[in-house]
Amino acid sequence: MKFTYDHDLHIHSNLSRCCKDPEMTKENILNYAKENGLSTICITDHYWDAAVPGASPWYEKQPFDHIKQILPLPQEDGIRFLFGCECEMDRNMTLGLPPERFDDFDFFIIPTTHMHMPFVRDEDDDGMPETRAKLWVKRLDGFLQKDLPYHKIGIAHLACCLILHKMTREDYLHTLDLIPTAEMERLFARAAEVGVGIELNQDDMTFTDEEAERILRMFRIAKEKGCKFYLGSDSHSREWFGNTSRTFQRAIDLLGLEESDKFII
Question: For 146, how many CA atoms within 13 A lie in the half-sphere containing its CB?
Answer without folding.
Answer: 20
